[in-house]
Amino acid sequence: MRIGKIAYFKCPLDLEFxxxxxxxxxxxxxxxxxxxxxxxxxxxxxxxxxxxxxxxFAPFTSGVSKVDVLxxxxxxxxxxxTVAKDALTAVKLHFGExxxxxxxxxxxxxAVVDEVKKCGGKPFLVDSNTLYVxxxxxxxxxxxxxxxxxxxxxxxxxxxxIADGLxxxxxxxxxxxxxxxxxxxxxxxxxxxxxLIVVSHFKGHVAAGYGGTIxxxxxxxxxxxxxxxxxxxxxxxxxxxxxGCGRCFRNCPGHAITMEKDAAGKTTSHIHAEPCLGCxxxxxxxxxxxxxxxxxxxxxxxxxNCRMAEYAWGAIKDKTRPLFINVMMDxxxxxxxxxxxxxxxxxxxxxxxxxxxxxxxxACYDMVMAASGSAVEEHHxxxxxxxxxxxxxxxxxxxxxxxxxxxxxxxxxxxxRTIHIEEGEGE
Length: 427
Description:
alpha/beta, Rossmann fold, Alpha-Beta Plaits, 2 domains, 14 helices, 20% strand
């Protein structure tokens, strides 16, 4: 299979932007969002110069299989430089919560597995158990969910391994010397893998703003106690918005919520700080957005994403040339941990790949911001809007990539290389 025509594309927005360089003159629309220009972290671990990380982008094209689009993106990042012969290669993905139907299709994962095998590697599919109560809380339930969602060996061609063991107690400590953590906990099957390929569904997230490669590495490669360390947020209920439905109470994994009546007889939920895990499941299930995050004097709303960035760095810092793939389709407001799937916020865009997780997430975020179409209009968004920030105003989505750049995980400065695929060109 040959790579199609390649175009060099700086950034999808029509403005001078430090992280993207000068924009193409044919870009549509004007910037309306709140993306943050590149910062020089002179005192940090990483000081960005003029280096641009390469992000390969294969757009979905009418008349072309989405699997073939993925294959083009995969081919561009050159697996042979990452996967050696007989290398035990972890393909990190999200198996999807039971009831969710917008997680990545298994046929996409099969294409990645096939590429690993071409290099002589030994692929296995990997995810870690969840902090919240659901269908992936332990390895038995997790594997059943994965198989029921179509990720069995007969479809994907690779065995399934739950990275952190039966009850999420199998992990390695990795030193990172970060701002929030000196050490992070990485699930054993990820830490011990010879090579790592991360395939992420790019979508929204109630606490992080969005989820892409960084979140997949951070939450997805950590055991339950590492997930708890990353969340570490404080939550409270707005009693005026609370309708007393009890959804938060029924779904709280830490049993930190009680339902109480006030003097007037109105029932509202109350979150108790000590048993609260900070997992934000209550925010996800609340129908009136009555649950919000509060911050201590020494933190702000960016701290959650910064902690995630440090955990992501711990998952890859000892790996040789890990590869990252973001699939921008079914871009839902919430993540695949939900037991349902809502209407996508933008039309399907395409698939991007890079060896730099920071640049990759930044590039995908910019493309979502620039997106227009019927799905955008349904959500009352506009081309150029910072859609994830509008969806989740309590989150600080840009902190993921900014802190990731600060600690040396990658660069905010990228060059997007677009692979044009003609109809009938795929296999």
